[in-house]
Model the fold of this input.
Amino acid sequence: MEALWAFFSSMKTAIVLLLFLAAASVLGTLLEDRKGVTLYGSSFYKTLLALVGINLTVCSLNRFKLVWRQVFGPVVVTDRQHIAGMAGSVSLTTPGQVDSVSERIAKALRSRRYKVTSAGVGSDIAIHAVRGRAGFWGPHVTHLSLLVIFASAIYGHFLGTDGYAPILETERTTGYYRRGQDKLTPLGFEVELRNFTIEFDGNHNPTGYKSDVRIHQDGREVHSKVVDVNHPLTWQGISFYQSDYGLNGLSVVITGLSGKSKRLSFTVVEENTPQGRRYVIKEMGLTEVELDGRKLHLLVHNLVPDYVGGEALNRSLLPLNPAVEVMINDRWPQYKGLDAWQRLGWMTEGKSARFKGYNVTIERLIFYSGLQVARNPGLPGVYTGFALMILGILLSFYVTHKTIRVHLTPAPEGVSVALGTTQTGNPDAPDRDIQHLVDSLSPQTAESQEGMHS
Amino acid sequence: MNQQLGLNLFHTAFWIYVVSAVCYVFGFLKNKPEPARLGRLLMLTAAAIHTASFVTLWIALGRPPFLNLYEYMLSFTWAAALVYVVTETLTRKTSIGAFFAPLIAGFVYLTQRLPNARIDEAVMPALRSAWRVPHVASAILAYGAFLLAFIFAVLYLVKDGLDKSQTGKDARTVESFWSRRLPDTDFLDRMIYRTIAFGFLMQTILVIVGAIWAQYAWGRFWGWDPKETWSFITWIIYATYLHTRTSMGWRGRKSAWVAIIGFGAVAFTLLGVSYLLKGLHSYAT
Done:
């Protein structure tokens, strides 16, 4: 157990795991692109992530004691050897008494925003000065943030839900399909799609996919929102995202001379082609209708999604202005001649055409909107983790936690001073504070020190 | 203020970058400060014109030029130039310009030669979000900083290689062409660290803002889209750099190599993913 703990608390293990994770991720993107295989959900990848998580936890726990001591119990070290081992350590002798030199040093340090504590041991004095203590927390806050994100993501994964709800215009749904399931999972309320519109600019580029969504609960409308990409609707913790849309059907109304009318529905099916999605009317769009004692056959076909007319006919694959070609026949099937089919031409939504006193209108195109349904209770945790991570990194790199330790002891020529410093952030940066202290203590060496400055 | 003016300014900046690069390189070869000073002046001018181009485009389009890869590269080269100018001003080392200026001129040239080198008129629904600005802004700053770290790392390896080959020989006779001109290795090593620290912060913001945006747009904050995954890979590599440096005491050559590999991941995230892999970020071409 101890060996395992030691293994997971080692920095080498951390680096190796990080490199494995990077390599596996590279492999993941390649596998997905070339073979369509997803690696990230595999137990191999999950194990790797779990190992990184364990490593991070063990390292954080291991350092906790150290952090506590560093932050809450500044130890005034009286050990000269300890100071000599610190980065940028300097020792020098300065005239004067231990007490007065100590006060001068403390004053100089305070003027540079250090928090100073000192302790006397016999005739010696040890000083411990610290600045930018928040910076010390940086790496720990960053590591904690990763654990918070990990834990929240796992929590959200197991307790959250994710699925899909296709809704036809003017219709409602009481549930959604969970990922990988065919049966409807109840939502606890009803979601209505009033209508779906595609907004586009002058060049027929889409600028918005908008679903007018209403929430009904206990028989009344309780919430409404136009859901667009980047603008989801959230109700009772469940969010609905604009994810897909399409054309599902169209209705045609035929009105006879008597004023009686009949509504015909045609189903549209989608075909995915390498160029994009195409829409086709199901079963050729041939329908028989009896009105005012006459049998009529209506052929609704050749759906074009973005009708512009003329020779170009169609502009894009986006269903921005769908049109169908309509033909009508009142002698079929008794008379099989093609000349009996009367072309009513290309018709878009709302357009009407006349045939022997009958009026044919494309009443409505019926769109559906595919809403992604998700509830992620881990999200507040994930966002907290994000905030902590930015804070942690800012503290790590831009608040330098510095400790200066000084030891003073009487010497024949005055006071022997040993200085040492440690700092987080950029430990190799030349230390100006130590230099400043040295300058203030040794007027006789000030000139040569200044030489170092320039 | 119109779009064409913005693009013309960008093209003008390109030629000034080229002349600036010539001056920096000349100063470097001759080991004289005057041409490099002129190079710096031209670099500042080019960066200022590039800034004017960026601002003009922003005003003309009503949005920052952050949409397709061309716009992105226009902004990225601007941020890289800005990061460089700030670094040069702080460190007062103009010799780096001999490497940075040709590279930035090269990147600007590449931007102008992209297969789809034009401004996008329409903003597709998926990109209509307030998160787009901080997302791309942090990306250009992160990648600008990583580019600089890459240059420092390459120079480190060159300089360190020379220093090592000279040990034991008479310093005066072997003081080579390069070692007289390049800053010392300690400085380069420190600069790799500082640019990566800044880049890492920006990369973190980039990924986090991207995740929040993805949550709004796609209903999940992480979905292993190739661009997401590669930005994560980049993040891991620079995290490795920082850990090996601060906790394992890596310095110098080993660290420089990690910085170079990191920039490889950056370049792949930026160009490789856009052109070679399919994914939700496919508009970024």
User: Anything to note?
Assistant: The first helix of chain A runs from residue 2 to 8.
